Amino acid sequence: MSKMTASSSHPQPRDPAAHGTPLAVHASTGLSIEDTQRLLNQQARQRAMSSTTGAATTSSHATSLPLLASDAGSAPIRYRSQGRTLLVGTEARVRALASLFSQLPTTLQLPLVLLISDQDNSALVSLDEQHFTTSEALPSHSATRDLLSLKGYLGQFTLTSDGVNLASALLPAISVMQPDGQSSLQHVAHFDLIADLAAQPLNQAELAPPGYLRATEAVLSELDRLASDAQLDAITLPALTEWAAQFSGLVGSFDKPNYVSVNLDVCAHASAGSIGCTRCLSSCSADAIFSVVGRRNAHIEIDPFLCHGAASCVSACPTGALSFTQPPVEQRMEQIQRLLERYQDAGGIYPLLRYRLDTDEAGSATVSVADQERCLDITLDEITATGHDEWLAALALGASQILVELPSTLPAGQRQQLEQERRLTLALLDSMQLATDHHDTSRLVFISSSVEGESAEDSASALPLIAPLCVALAPGADSEEEHQLGLPIARDWLLGRPDERPGKRERLNRVLDHLAGLTAADLAEESVAVPEGAPFGSLAIDTDGCTLCQACVAVCPTTALSANRTSPALSFTQGDCVQCGLCEQSCPEQVITLTPGFAPQPDVRREPQLLKQDVPFPCISCGTPFGSTATITAMQTKLASHAYFQGDGALRLKMCSDCRVKDIWHEMARNPDAQLKV
């Protein structure tokens, strides 16, 4: 059975309704053709969605603590919390909250520490006397916000004030049994939980670490009411009571998976002391990714205790150095493939692929009734777990349109990340004139989650129907004309065999090649503009200044730059370049400049382009070629005034390394004093 490859020829896109879809049933039912097709779409959707039942779940991780150890995989990340809670904010607020904790059965036993970081004398004057009485015996401390520094996560929060560890200073020492059977007192170095009521939060990340609970405006409003009236109860303070009750659920031991793995072999972050790609650092909403400077180089590390598994870093990583462990991206690609197979095989047309959160709120429809009948849902724990490479692949696999449902609570940073992915997707499609159909309807649409109490089914207008870019291929078919309805669909060109999975960049290149074969437009020979920061482009090189030293080849993480094994030469493959900038920074001659852009023609993007070629320079002693003529000439020019390379010493620049060493030893044998010059 032959496999379809990315270079296979494809006929022009057509309306799948004209591809032999069985509509004859309308004659016996009395339904119109349109109603019959809607019924077929509905049945096809049910069949497609049921085909994923029992398969591995698409949920990437648990959404909240506590987490089960059985869900944590082979190397779970474990938190341990004994409930030592720090309340930080104005004195009125922290004392009022401490009073509430002492009244709630769930938080009654939590060890509390009060930290007064803000001054609010007006609120302190109106503070109910009962709150003073309740919290008077609790350890407390005052410190200005500028002196405070918070690090850590659930069970391991370290808070210092002007260098002093407040946990050790304020929490009572605990008795620890020694190996000899004797007990001794030991200071507690960490807080387990943080209740932040301050005007300026101690943690600025959009996704705060587990165990750090920042009070919302609604909670603070009710807390201020409680501060002046201690007689208020839980019924009159619903938001505050619900927020405070979360602390009791964060006592004990909790496991979660290690969501993201790092492959430093293909990471484009740093090389040879230069910093390149930083997309993952800027995309992380939890501040869980760090650039660690080593002895020779820097590398990326992820703090698994801070990581929420939002996967925005995985979407932003252009090389696939960051990958999601649960589940791997190939699993979701296979799910998309399966959904589209079953849907089209059952007679469904115009398939919509909708990405949405795997939450209870996602149960409400965000599209019209008619569109719901052809919606194939991909549920995610974090909407940022998807991006341009996956959306393009879905269109290449037969989806007519991609819908991404944005939750109303999506943090601003993640929303910006998705918007960047959207712009890049549309720019790539537009370069092949595939971003819209002939009615100017976009193939990628962002939709908002329906407001509570409002059903989008009733209010939303039906989306325009867009024919998919391609129809399915059956196994062994060489063209869409040979496809027969009722047969499974072959998509081996994208994922390949399980033991030969392509990397992220190669998978994306296959998708782009496939899409380029589906367009009826003449593709531009030159690169087209892409959004700022996009991982696509080429480079401009001053060939007169280039010495072919190959420093750029040595640092390139994707082999976009390559050398010739038989002669001095430098080649560049645009399809592999992620615009990390390492070559530009590492070039000793400073003759390389990055030029962002995207080449829609596969031949231009995929074929190596010869940038410079030179004549090999032969060793003047043994005749062995050991470098380019340009390199040797540049060395002679730069070292012309060096004392060591004067007279006969200058000839060593024209020798290979072996002959140069031999010549040095011969010189030392003839003139022992020459050692002082080495």
TrEMBL record:
GO molecular function, one example?
Answer: 4 iron, 4 sulfur cluster binding
Q: Is Iron included in the keywords of this UniProt record?
A: yes
Q: Which UniProt keywords apply?
A: 4Fe-4S, Iron, Iron-sulfur, Metal-binding
Q: Which domain of life is it from?
A: Bacteria
What SUPFAM superfamilies does the database record attribute to this sequence?
A: 4Fe-4S ferredoxins (SSF54862)
Q: Where are the residues of the annotated region Disordered? A: 1-22, 41-62
Which chain regions cross the lipid bilayer?
none
Q: Which PROSITE patterns match?
A: 4FE4S_FER_1, 4FE4S_FER_2
- For the 4Fe-4S ferredoxin-type domain, which residue ranges apply? 298-327, 537-566, 568-597
Q: Where is the composition biased (Polar residues)?
A: 1-11
Name of this chain's protein: 4Fe-4S dicluster domain-containing protein
UniProt organism field: Cobetia crustatorum
